[in-house]
């Protein structure tokens, strides 16, 4: 595919909206090296948002601290973050609203087959990207606590660091999102000696969640949230959500082009490709009342475990704007 054809495909995402007298500027978006960031990269290249003259400008974030710094300095208008982070921002006085929710695959990756069951977590040391109180830590503590299991967290800088420690034999299990989970397994198999037991994706945490919380089967721990002045521009939230949904469909239909885009716009994400594609690109959005109920249940669990983990209190009725 030529570069011209590639850019034409991206441009096809920009729906013709009503003309406006002047460009209101760009909407600055950010995301980490996970599959849910891919649509933001597409939106960056696609032109004006549907029905608006505003373009999307993407910048990656590589650690929760970096994202918080960007928000604190008014350097970002919307970002992929956790529902707990978005709630915390709102509780700390930063205008924030969630416009999309994700039920993303999160894997226990290990050479040990006993971790195909949640009970195999008991008494284990687990490599967790980011620090205490960040989402990998909170998610696993909420699930393990309800199941009556104990584990020892070992916090590392990010998902790729966890992958490398796992491959070096300096850890026996890691909690990883996509595409890092598939990358760990692919690299392990490429480096393995004959008959060696290598890390595999043992348990999708969403499956464990449904088992432990059968009355609340959806796990909605990830979000696209708007912050700062954009949180008050409610008319723009639907356009942003619609553009994200459309871009997510494009990502699923154009895996090779998406990889090229990721390599150009976010090399740390593009480097996680396996066999020419980025795993996890079949992004699972949860919308409407089902999504909001799932997110509120999750936040309620975190609040019961540690109110500080969501900024002290549950969000108000206007916090979630996730209708399709």
What do you see in this structure?
- This protein is of the alpha/beta class and 324 residues long.
- It has 2 domains: 3-103 and 220-310, 3-Layer(aba) Sandwich (D-Maltodextrin-Binding Protein, domain 2), CATH 3.40.190; 106-212, 3-Layer(aba) Sandwich (D-Maltodextrin-Binding Protein, domain 2).
- The chain is 40% helix and 17% strand.
- The chain is built from 12 helices and 10 strands.
- It has helices at residues 3-11, 38-46, 64-72, 83-91, 135-147, 159-167, 180-191, 205-212, 234-253, 255-265, 267-270, 288-305, and strands at 27-31, 56-60, 78-82, 96-102, 106-110, 124-129, 151-156, 174-177, 200-204, 222-227.
- A 5-stranded mixed beta sheet has the order 2-1-3-10-4, sandwiched between helices. The chain has a 3-stranded antiparallel beta sheet with strand order 8-5-9.
- Helix 2 (38-46) packs across helix 9 (234-253).
- The chain is globular.
- It starts with a helix and ends in a 19-residue tail after the last helix.
Helix/strand layout:
Blueprint: H1 3-11, E1 27-31, H2 38-46, E2 56-60, H3 64-72, E3 78-82, H4 83-91, E4 96-102, E5 106-110, E6 124-129, H5 135-147, E7 151-156, H6 159-167, E8 174-177, H7 180-191, E9 200-204, H8 205-212, E10 222-227, H9 234-253, H10 255-265, H11 267-270, H12 288-305
Parallel strand pairs: 1-2, 1-3, 6-7
Antiparallel strand pairs: 3-10, 4-10, 5-8, 5-9
Helix pairs in contact: 2-9, 6-7
């Amino acid at each position: 595919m030529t570069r011209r054809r590639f850019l034409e495909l991206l441009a096809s995402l920009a729906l013709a909206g009503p003309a406006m007298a002047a460009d209101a500027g760009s909407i600055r978006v950010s995301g980490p090296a996970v599959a849910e960031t891919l649509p933001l990269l597409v939106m960056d290249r696609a032109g004006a948002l549907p029905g608006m003259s505003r373009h999307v400008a993407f910048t990656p974030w590589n650690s929760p601290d970096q994202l918080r710094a960007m928000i604190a300095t008014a350097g970002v208008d919307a970002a992929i973050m956790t529902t707990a982070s978005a709630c915390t921002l709102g509780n700390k006085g930063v205008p924030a609203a969630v416009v999309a929710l994700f039920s993303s695959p999160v894997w226990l990756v290990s050479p040990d087959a006993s971790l195909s069951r949640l009970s195999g977590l008991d008494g284990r040391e687990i490599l967790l990207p980011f620090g205490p109180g960040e989402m990998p830590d909170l998610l696993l503590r909420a699930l393990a606590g309800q199941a009556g299991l104990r584990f020892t967290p070992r916090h590392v800088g990010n998902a790729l660091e966890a992958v490398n420690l796992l491959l070096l034999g300096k850890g026996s299990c890691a909690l990883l999102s996509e595409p890092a989970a598939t990358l760990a397994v692919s690299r392990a198999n490429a480096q393995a000696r004959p008959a060696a037991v290598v890390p595999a994706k043992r348990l999708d945490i969403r499956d464990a969640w449904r088992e432990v919380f059968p009355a609340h089967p959806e796990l909605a721990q990830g979000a696209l949230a708007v912050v700062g002045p954009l949180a008050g521009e409610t008319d723009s939230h639907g356009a942003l959500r619609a553009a994200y949904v459309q871009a997510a469909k494009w990502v699923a239909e154009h895996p090779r082009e998406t990889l090229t885009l990721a390599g150009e716009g976010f090399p740390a994400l593009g480097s996680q490709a396996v066999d020419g594609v980025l795993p996890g690109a079949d992004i699972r959005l949860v919308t409407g009342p089902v999504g909001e109920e799932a997110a509120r249940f999750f936040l309620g669990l975190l609040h019961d475990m540690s109110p500080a983990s969501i900024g002290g209190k549950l969000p108000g009725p206007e916090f979630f704007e996730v209708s399709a």
